[in-house]
């Protein structure tokens, strides 16, 4: 396997043009896959020397995230406001400190692990993802980016060049709850929520489920149960029930394990929403 350390964006897209080159970002998934023999790219292009890729900027109402923004960045106060608070709430549940110090948000989106946190966050926020090849640049909404476990619409010659996360309005509380068997493992199930309260009632709600189907799940039925209601226990209970509805959310989940998954989704959604309320 050939190794190439790229120093410019153009070098990266030129290297990817052969369709048999893998991007090396944080290496926290790629190195394991290559070591285990699950992946055999002809070449690896290391993007770590490309300084331009480390950008993290707020423009208008969006946060622009470059290919070399590490998970760890979101543990700091690099991002302010309600979105920053939500990122900080979620990030500490990703792996453990060495993984967060190397792994990147765009790497996690590209890898599309069914139990990863960032793909669900990007989906419920309505993020946009820019893909760049030596031929063109295109933008894909996050809800159309993920096509299955470890599968996305990204073509082999494309770099995930930028993720744009919409900022959250003031008055938004965020919550996250997970069931995870061990510290260094992915979550078995998790729920995340961002709830905005205006004039005493819920004016907007985003609810996402991690590892509850082949693709990231946005629990729209739960969001609907929340909107327009006061943010009390009754609304939280109704939303948790709606999140656990098979027809609404868990139909893509294998039937034999569905009952346990439903129970986990119900409990974790309730906890995530309760935390969101406390964070207001
Ligand atoms: C023990 C362990 C526990 C973990 N726990 C969690 C967890 O709880 N939650 C979680 O979300 N993740 C977890 N991870 C995964 C971690 O978050 C990885 O960092 C992440 O999945 C991949 O990011 P990376 O930057 O390391 O990418 P890499 O490992 O470098 O790359 C991963 C894949 O994406 C491709 N790629 C990377 N960047 C780009 C890009 N910009 N454009 C195109 N393709 C790209 C690579 O070619 C490769 O196929 C865990 C990993 C380990 C080893």
Summarize this structure as a short list of keywords or feature phrases.
280 residues, Uridine Diphospho-n-acetylenolpyruvylglucosamine Reductase, domain 3, 2 domains, 11 helices, 14 strands, 26% strand, binds flavin-adenine dinucleotide
Instruction: Give helix and strand order, one letter per element, not per position.
Output: EHEHEEEHHHHEEHEEEEEEEHHHH
The small-molecule ligands in this entry are:
flavin-adenine dinucleotide
CATH architecture assignment of the largest domain = 2-Layer Sandwich
Mean pLDDT: 97
Which structural class should the secondary elements be placed in?
A: alpha+beta
The end-to-end distance, rounded to whole angstroms, is 51 Å
Number of contiguous helices:
11
| CATH fold group of the largest domain | Uridine Diphospho-n-acetylenolpyruvylglucosamine Reductase, domain 3
β-strand percent reads 25-35%
The general outline is: globular
If strands are numbered along the chain, what order do they take across the biggest sheet?
4-5-10-6-7
Enumerate the spans where pLDDT stays under 50 for 5 or more consecutive residues: none
Please state the CA-atom Rg, rounded to the nearest Å: 19 Å
Task: Bin the helical content.
Answer: 25-40%
* Main pleated sheet: 5 strands, antiparallel
Number of domains: 2
Total beta strand runs: 14
Description:
This protein has 11 helices and 14 strands. Helix 8 (220-226) packs antiparallel against helix 9 (233-243). The model has no long low-confidence stretch (mean pLDDT 97). It is an alpha+beta fold and 280 residues long. It is globular, with a radius of gyration of 19 Å. It has 2 domains: 51-166, Uridine Diphospho-n-acetylenolpyruvylglucosamine Reductase, domain 3; 172-278, 2-Layer Sandwich (Enolase-like, domain 1), CATH 3.30.390. The protein has helices at residues 9-16, 30-35, 81-91, 97-102, 105-111, 117-125, 142-145, 220-226, 233-243, 246-250, 258-278, and strands spanning 2-5, 21-24, 43-46, 56-59, 62-65, 128-132, 137-141, 146-148, 151-152, 159-166, 172-179, 189-198, 201-210, 217-218. Bound molecules: flavin-adenine dinucleotide (FAD).
């Amino acid at each position: 396997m050939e190794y190439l350390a790229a120093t410019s964006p153009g070098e990266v897209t030129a290297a990817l043009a052969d369709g048999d080159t893998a991007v090396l970002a944080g290496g926290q998934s790629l190195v394991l896959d290559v070591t285990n023999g699950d992946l055999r790219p002809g070449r690896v292009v290391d993007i770590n020397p490309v300084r331009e890729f480390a950008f993290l900027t707020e423009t208008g109402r969006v946060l622009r995230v470059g290919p070399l923004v590490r998970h760890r960045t979101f543990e700091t106060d690099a991002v302010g406001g309600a979105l920053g608070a939500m990122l900080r709430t979620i990030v500490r549940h990703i792996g453990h400190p060495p993984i967060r110090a190397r792994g990147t948000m765009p790497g996690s989106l590209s890898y599309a692990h069914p139990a990863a946190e960032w793909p669900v966050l990007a989906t419920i926020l309505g993020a946009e993802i820019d893909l760049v090849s030596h031929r063109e640049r295109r933008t894909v909404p996050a809800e159309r980016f993920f096509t299955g476990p470890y599968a996305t619409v990204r073509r082999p010659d494309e770099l995930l060049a930028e993720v744009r996360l919409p900022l959250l309005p003031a008055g938004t509380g965020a919550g996250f709850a997970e069931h995870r068997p061990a510290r260094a493992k992915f979550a078995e199930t998790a729920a995340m929520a961002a709830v905005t309260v205006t004039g005493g009632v819920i004016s907007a709600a985003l609810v996402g489920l991690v590892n509850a189907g082949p693709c990231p799940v946005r629990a729209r039925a739960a969001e609907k149960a929340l909107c327009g209601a006061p943010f009390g226990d009754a609304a939280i209970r109704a939303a948790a029930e709606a999140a656990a509805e098979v027809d609404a959310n868990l139909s893509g989940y294998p039937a034999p394990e569905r009952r346990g998954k439903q129970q986990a989704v119900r409990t974790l959604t309730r906890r995530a929403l309760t935390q969101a309320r406390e964070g207001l």
